[in-house]
Write a structure and sequence with these properties.
Number of domains: 2
Radius of gyration: 17 Å
Mean pLDDT: 89
Order of helices and strands: EEEHEHHHH
CATH class of the largest domain: Alpha Beta
Strand order of the largest sheet: 3-2-1-4
CATH architecture of the largest domain: 2-Layer Sandwich
Helix content: 40-55%
Structural class: alpha+beta
Low-confidence stretches: none
Number of helices: 5
Distance between the termini: 52 Å
Length: about 130
């Protein structure tokens, strides 16, 4: 079975997702809920064909504007500095005023993933 591309979109009531090549659709109130619902929807769709789908077979995609609207914690200026990109240019991508090409998209995604990796390796300490 080929990889399932699920397109994520923010709606007025939460989030929705649909597969590009299969009739798989779902909704969720939050991003984590939507992702869990998408895994379940894919399993249900392929269950009839006796094919077991796994989360590794699903690839989630979201456009720049919606990504940065949802993940407001990411600071565009910080990200631009991290990936050596002009902050104004990145801001134009985020706001949808300009479209990125494949190389710029890969560069931005790599920076986001690097930040995510750094955050996942941190442990916070607290004072009592």
């Amino acid at each position: 079975m080929k990889k399932i591309n699920m397109i994520l979109e923010q709606t007025d009531t939460g989030f929705s997702a649909y597969a590009e090549d299969y009739p798989i659709y779902t909704t969720g109130k939050s991003m984590p809920d939507l992702i869990n619902q998408a895994y379940e929807a894919a399993q249900l769709y392929f269950e009839e064909e006796k094919i077991i789908s796994s989360p590794k077979q699903i690839r989630f995609e979201i456009d720049f504007v919606q990504f940065f609207q949802y993940y407001k914690v990411l600071n565009a200026k910080f990200l631009a500095e991290k990936i050596n990109m002009n902050p104004t240019l990145l801001s134009q991508y985020i706001q949808g005023h300009k479209k990125t090409g494949p190389n710029q998209t890969a560069k931005i995604l790599s920076g986001i993933q690097q930040i995510g990796q750094e955050l996942s390796e941190l442990n916070l300490i607290y004072q009592r």
